[in-house]
């Protein structure tokens, strides 16, 4: 019994760690092409950038909300109590009347295409130049 406990606990911890590390992204049912237009029409880019990098990053795995279409949908709807006055920097509420479920799914599909791949430092000559100058002083 003592041995069982001794080995099963670390095993359990290890398995749980794997389960967390491999949180799977849910399926995509919307149309990314239409989602792109909606992303612009509804002003998402204003705060989240053209590539999902902005006031709050959405690209890559920066946002847990983006793991799942349903979670994303609920999140957009769940903010009615927070609905800020414009102009605002807060995340607005998006009720079904202004953004139907199908549109939300299209936007979700589009955001899932975002990849943040900044260039390496040596590939940005202006930045590298500044760093070289700083070094030579
Ligand atoms: C006026 C600025 C603004 C606009 C417009 C906006 N957002 Fe946001 N968004 C935010 C801010 C700020 C947050 C940070 C979290 C918060 O306020 O709860 C956020 C958070 C989020 C999150 C959750 C990220 C996380 O993991 O915390 C998602 C997803 C999201 N926005 C999607 C969208 C989509 C899709 C649109 C367009 C339909 C949109 N946002 C439009 C400002 C904005």
How would you describe this structure to a colleague?
The chain is mainly alpha-helical. The protein has a domain at 26-117: Orthogonal Bundle (Cytochrome Bc1 Complex, Chain D, domain 2), CATH 1.10.760. It has helices spanning 2-21, 32-41, 44-48, 69-77, 101-111, 125-136. Helix 2 crosses helix 5 (101-111). The protein starts with a helix and ends with a helix. Residues 42-44, 46-48, 55-56, 58, 63-66, 72, 75, 88-92, 94, 107 line the site of heme C (HEC).
- The ordered string of helix (H) and strand (E) elements is HHHHHH
Percent of residues in beta strands?
Answer: under 5%
Task: Give the oligomeric state of the chains in this entry, treating copies of one chain as homo and distinct chains as hetero.
Answer: single chain
Beginning-to-end CA distance, first to last residue: 67 Å
Main β-sheet, in a few words?
Answer: none
CATH topology of the domain at 26-117: Cytochrome Bc1 Complex, Chain D, domain 2
- Would you identify the CATH H-level superfamily of the domain at 26-117? Cytochrome c-like domain
Structural class: mainly alpha
CATH-level-2 architecture of the domain at 26-117: Orthogonal Bundle
Q: What is the CATH domain class of the domain at 26-117?
A: Mainly Alpha
Helical content stands at 40-55%
In this entry the ligands are: heme C
- Summed up, the helix count is 6
Radius of gyration: 21 Å
Mean pLDDT: 83
Uncertain segments: none
Number of strands: 0
Shape: extended
């Amino acid at each position: 019994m003592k041995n069982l406990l001794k080995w099963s606990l670390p095993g359990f911890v290890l398995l749980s760690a794997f389960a967390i590390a491999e949180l799977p992204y849910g399926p995509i049912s919307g149309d990314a092409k239409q989602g792109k237009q909606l992303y612009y029409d509804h002003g998402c880019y204003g705060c989240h950038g053209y590539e999902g990098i902005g006031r709050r990053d959405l690209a890559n795995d920066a946002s847990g909300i983006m793991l799942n279409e349903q979670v994303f949908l609920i999140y957009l709807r769940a903010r009615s109590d927070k609905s800020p006055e414009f102009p605002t920097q807060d995340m607005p509420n998006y009720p079904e009347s202004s953004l139907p479920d199908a549109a939300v799914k299209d936007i979700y599909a589009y955001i899932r295409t975002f990849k943040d791949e900044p260039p390496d430092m040596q590939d940005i000559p202006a930045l590298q130049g500044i760093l070289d100058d700083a070094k030579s002083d």
